Amino acid sequence: MAIAATVSLPLTSPSRAARLSSVPALRSSFLSHSSSNTSVSIRASIAPRNPRFRISMTLQAPEKSLGASSFLDRRESGVLHFVKYHGLGNDFILVDNRDSSEPRITPEQAVKLCDRNFGIGADGVIFAMPGTNGTDYTMRIFNSDGSEPEMCGNGVRCFARFIAELENLQGRQRFTVHTGAGLIVPEIQDDGKVTVDMGEPILKASDVPTRLSPNKGQSVVKSGLVVDGVTWDVTCVSMGNPHCVTFGNKENQSLQVDELNLAEIGPKFEHHEMFPARTNTEFVQVFSSSHLKMRVWERGAGATLACGTGACAVVVAAVLEGHAGRNCTVDLPGGPLEIEWREEDNHIYMTGPAEVVFYGSVPL
């Protein structure tokens, strides 16, 4: 029996909050066959003052199995079909935009969709678009605040799994993806995890960008940054998007990251005058030369459960500061990522999961 979950909510200001629970088993149920002809429809009015705001779930036995491609092929005027994915809890609304180089929704609509009380709930909206300059595909993202980042590491893993479902591809697959950070190459492994060639880290201070003065060649490595009167030791890295990585401050050289008030300190780093494009900030605890733990405040999204580019930047900073080797497990609140900074090509390789949460539709 296939299950299709539909979230129906207008992108105008609703009168009351509603939340759609995740459906972990939805993907397997949605793709399964059933000999039953039973059809059950459940509709619950969440906001009586706004009859358009409802959640409906339909269970039906299709003639043949459905996948993301057939679900998203439905073309209805004023309706956006999507699939929600997550990479270690960093969650995204994935939109099939392969027929156009312009996003199907505006940044303002993305903000409303990402709202966890009045919308679907996500850290961002990702669009699968036609390739650029010979690549297979183009990936664009709107953050939950409507800003557009150059790239997202967890997002590109979700993007790869989304493309595989759209194209009905099985087994090991490799794509070339154009992003605002340049060429990214994800590869789906036999176990379903995704390894992404994230390219070379950018360390030149002016290219990160940061206004902090270089103190190691053209790079900023373990340099002092004053935030609220406290001097933090920071290393600045770009993975196509800016990162400020810290392992401690002058008062506390060994962070216990779970004790940090991220909501208080994170925005002060993000909007610091030393970062003209704002910055993502990673706070790191060192367990060993191959095991790190981080919490992240993401530019445009705030505290998230995982950040792939951030984990890559953390390993680069750990190597440069002498905390770790080039092959590390990085623990994030949503789970671990495997990060390798290879000496032979200077590229960083990230490996981690990406999972379907549910399929849905929303009126625009």
TrEMBL record:
<dbReference type="GO" id="GO:0005829">
    <property type="term" value="C:cytosol"/>
</dbReference>
<keyword id="KW-0457">Lysine biosynthesis</keyword>
<dbReference type="InterPro" id="IPR018510">
    <property type="entry name" value="DAP_epimerase_AS"/>
</dbReference>
<keyword id="KW-0413">Isomerase</keyword>
<keyword id="KW-0028">Amino-acid biosynthesis</keyword>
<comment type="similarity">
    <text>Belongs to the diaminopimelate epimerase family.</text>
</comment>
<comment type="pathway">
    <text>Amino-acid biosynthesis; L-lysine biosynthesis via DAP pathway; DL-2,6-diaminopimelate from LL-2,6-diaminopimelate: step 1/1.</text>
</comment>
<dbReference type="InterPro" id="IPR001653">
    <property type="entry name" value="DAP_epimerase_DapF"/>
</dbReference>
<dbReference type="Pfam" id="PF01678">
    <property type="entry name" value="DAP_epimerase"/>
</dbReference>
<dbReference type="GO" id="GO:0009507">
    <property type="term" value="C:chloroplast"/>
</dbReference>
<protein>
    <recommendedName>
        <fullName>diaminopimelate epimerase</fullName>
        <ecNumber>5.1.1.7</ecNumber>
    </recommendedName>
</protein>
<dbReference type="GO" id="GO:0009089">
    <property type="term" value="P:lysine biosynthetic process via diaminopimelate"/>
</dbReference>
<dbReference type="GO" id="GO:0008837">
    <property type="term" value="F:diaminopimelate epimerase activity"/>
</dbReference>
